[in-house]
Amino acid sequence: MRQYETFELTMTGKALKQNYAAVDVTAVFCCDGQEKTVSGFYDGMDEDGNGIYKVRFLPEQEGHYTWQVTGEVSAKGEADCDRADSLLHGMVRATGTHFTLEDGSAFYPFGTTVYALANQSDELVGETIRTMKNSPFNKVRMCVFPKHYVYNHNEPSFYMFRKTDGTDALDTGFTENDGAQWDTSSPDIRFWQRFERICAELGEAGIQIDLILFHPYDRWGFSAMKTDACLTYLDYLVRRLSAFPYFWWSMANEYDLMAARTPKDWDTFGNFLKEHDPYGHLLSNHNCFRLFDFSRDYVTHACIQSSWTYRAAQYIAGYHKPVIYDEMRYEGNLEESWGSISGFEMVNRFWTVCAQGAYGTHGETFLPEDEIVWWARGGRLIGESPRRIAFLKDFIYSLPGALTPVAGMWNRMMEIRKKGQAAVDAALAAMPAEVRTFAGNILNMDETEQTLFLLNESVAAGKVGDVCQLYYYGRMCPGRVNIRVKKGSKYKVERIDAWEMTRETVFEEIMPSALPAGGFTAPGEDTAEQGNICVSMPSREGMAVLVSRI
Amino acid sequence: MRQYETFELTMTGKALKQNYAAVDVTAVFCCDGQEKTVSGFYDGMDEDGNGIYKVRFLPEQEGHYTWQVTGEVSAKGEADCDRADSLLHGMVRATGTHFTLEDGSAFYPFGTTVYALANQSDELVGETIRTMKNSPFNKVRMCVFPKHYVYNHNEPSFYMFRKTDGTDALDTGFTENDGAQWDTSSPDIRFWQRFERICAELGEAGIQIDLILFHPYDRWGFSAMKTDACLTYLDYLVRRLSAFPYFWWSMANEYDLMAARTPKDWDTFGNFLKEHDPYGHLLSNHNCFRLFDFSRDYVTHACIQSSWTYRAAQYIAGYHKPVIYDEMRYEGNLEESWGSISGFEMVNRFWTVCAQGAYGTHGETFLPEDEIVWWARGGRLIGESPRRIAFLKDFIYSLPGALTPVAGMWNRMMEIRKKGQAAVDAALAAMPAEVRTFAGNILNMDETEQTLFLLNESVAAGKVGDVCQLYYYGRMCPGRVNIRVKKGSKYKVERIDAWEMTRETVFEEIMPSALPAGGFTAPGEDTAEQGNICVSMPSREGMAVLVSRI
């Protein structure tokens, strides 16, 4: 037994042909007086016709463990759990508005998307995992269920369940929903065993699996399962998978496109997972249109589909949870607008979210000759963004800590507006007359005006405490920038080109000068302690400046 | 006298030293039984010390005219007015959602911005006009008053008025508002004579002058004039300038930043201009934040500052008037976000608005060594966008008529939403079950969701009747596109690269094939008569497709 490593007990017992998803097997693990109860699962038959029962457990602390298994099978035992070696860091947790590994080290997710990875051929899966190991990506969004969608029409290797009429969908040549229900209490063990092997290879390569539990792209009927059947499926999934540290639960992809699901269902699923998952894996839900309610207590982080990456700071402030733009369109050349952004724009969106202390997820959608598009089925990456995302990832990991948003002047004014008209009036009254009209326009915007106005801002900014500030200028092409810093210290200033992947020192040690005259100051901003650093810039898109206090 | 050519009568009379703005001079011009009354103006003294009085008149029809001048001076006369020669097209008028010249020919505005042009040195003005003559621009936004702003600090050659204390601001070395009021009833004739010479050179070169009557960037006090003083100024301006066919009235630049102005003032000014301008020059008002109310009856067209060019179709549908994005940020490398978009992005915004049948205005803001930035003071153009705008202008003029927006599926669904919940419910009930969830999300969006959603669309589309359709794909990089056309005709298909300035024929004559299966159809859309044309594309940004029925 080793800390952060999945521990598995295998027992034999009665062979079962149906209704084995919720088999009665419970294990209690005890260490240092603390008990943890986990459920076991049925894993098919061995060659002798015995039923195979398994219990999986993730020890999160070192020490001496004892365990006792009861129910359909019984067992007991004990073992010393060694301290994790340096390669094992445990599960990723949400800590404030960021992620950390169990051992306290930072985890900055740089994800990619291969929705139907687990339902591809062994050859394609192998190629995909090799590609991923040579990429910057440390997280992948992928589905349990097979996918039916444009560029996605292959049959899966295995179906997830037997049918309620007792037939095996694979054996009967089933290819689309025939009206019969899936028997979620009779999972197809072959599917799960293969699925786990794929996930293990990813997980052991350090890639977090943001596992999509439901999705709407379906011709087989999985998206229309009754709520009870969904819970049986989730129960079996948690029993099998939750002891693997590399899983995150993403309740759905585009939850709001699932016609069979009610808002209550998502609460039911979220609470079920929170209650039944012994380890508290990360848990969120992904939208097409309306963002999920990330303030729900079972939600650990915001999982956002949106192109409006400049809003990351607003979401961080609103949810007080980590924010991942898990879909911000894909680098590619499809006809569909979601699959035809340039490599530059993919990189631009990554920098915009990361500069604010949020995170992004990549996807690649080039018109295929063979129906194999990375974003759904994997294969090879041919886009221009991955190596720039690698550069960004190295850059973010090089910082002295996780970034938090620097609210721009506009955002700070909107904060006043949220407090109501009295606060707006007071702020305006306190302003110099010459800026009151200007500021009054901003403070009195209606909702659409505010949305349009804030989206049009171009500088994404974040800081690490008072140690460093990062400004990313996105689509702006400034020839110089002026940056406000605290007076009285010296600063190192670096200029970063997100596309050319260069990072150069502009000033090794610079003392800020006085603020330029006539600058606009937001209400509540104290400029007395501020100085200015002017940095010359190359007048092109995709540039950032990092200012670090010495 | 010649049709569309300014006709000027000069008379001498009593010399005036003050209060000559609203001098009592009225002229009645009569042709074919129709009378038009115009006011004259005082234009200083001649060498003999006589007052010079002028009446300007723009004959809009050919025929025999008689006139009679009464008031401070008297005159009468008659003349034959010849038909315009082919170079003179008369004033630009709003016709539906487009502009036409008086003679019926189309006018597509491709504007630029040189705010303080008339307040620069003769040398710089000359250089600017030479530049403009060699550019695609057929309209310029420029101010009457001098400008005080970042990169704009030069004194004007002349001030507009004498002061109320009787002093001449120019002679007394005045450089900023000293608390005294401007005497708008005593205009500085030197200013106006020079101003008219500059405007005439532009106008005679075929450049419309979108004349900004007020603006907030001011250290002299012009922006703070009392409402009555403003009306005196407008009265004099209309007497002097309205007989020149090339003027448009833009009540303000960033009207909402003018602290001294109330909403009622703009109505007062708009109605005053409508009543006093004998010719009905185009009239609008330009915002910083909140769009002006373009539904006002004195407003002839929408003058919009916004970066959100994809909304042009919404504005056209909302106002039923021509729409010009008169400020959509500037090509340049300033630190300010409004002055640092790339040349590509400037061109991209032009194509986006023009493809929808709206219009755009250019500006250029490169960091100067000498405080001379095109957008404010003129000089030379160094950006990459003007020659691409020339290509676009040639393209738009080559079409068989003015474009009107093709509402995208999303916009059509939003139209249903506007009709209320009953219409939404009825539309959803009429849809196939498999798209109802998807469509329901769109139809039930809140305002912010709708704003964000529509902004994220990428294809700007317009049509000329049922003769041709234009699709501009903006930042999308499609490798192929499918276009729906009416069945039963042959089509010519052209592919246009906005940046490389190429236009190539893909299909000389193509018969549309059947619609691809599974396409999403908006409520109310009839697909029975539609066929499909698939066009291969080069997988890069800035591409358009023109489909013309043969």
Any chance you could write out the topology, listing elements then pairs?
Two copies of one chain form a homodimer.
Chain A: E1 7-13, E2 25-31, E3 34-39, E4 41-45, E5 51-57, E6 63-71, E7 75-81, E8 92-95, E9 98-101, E10 110-113, H1 122-133, E11 139-143, E12 161-163, E13 182-187, H2 189-204, E14 208-214, H3 227-241, E15 247-252, H4 263-276, E16 283-284, E17 302-305, H5 312-319, E18 323-327, E19 331-332, H6 343-355, E20 359-361, E21 364-365, H7 374-377, H8 385-398, E22 404-405, H9 409-418, H10 421-429, H11 433-443, H12 447-455, E23 460-464, E24 468-472, E25 480-486, E26 491-497, E27 502-510, E28 530-536, E29 543-549
Parallel strand pairs in A: 10-11, 10-20, 11-14, 14-15, 15-16, 17-18, 18-20, 19-21
Antiparallel strand pairs in A: 1-5, 2-3, 2-6, 4-5, 6-7, 8-9, 12-13, 22-23, 23-24, 24-29, 25-28, 26-27, 26-29
Helix pairs in contact in A: 3-4, 6-8
Write structural notes for this entry.
The structure is a homodimer. Chain A is an alpha/beta fold. The model of chain A has no long low-confidence stretch (mean pLDDT about 95). Chain A is built from twelve helices and 29 strands.
Number of helices of chain A: 12
Average pLDDT confidence of chain A is 94
C-alpha Rg of chain A, in Å?
Answer: 26 Å
Based on Cα principal axes, name the global outline of chain A. elongated
Q: Which runs of chain A of at least 5 residues are low in confidence (pLDDT < 50)?
A: none
**Strand arrangement in the largest pleated sheet of chain A:** 16-15-14-11-10-20-18-17
End-to-end Cα distance of chain A: 45 Å
Query: Strand fraction band of chain A?
Result: 25-35%
| Main beta sheet strand tally, sense and closure of chain A | 8 strands, parallel
The total strand number of chain A stands at 29
User: What's the level 1 CATH class of the largest domain in chain A?
Assistant: Alpha Beta
Structural class of chain A: alpha/beta
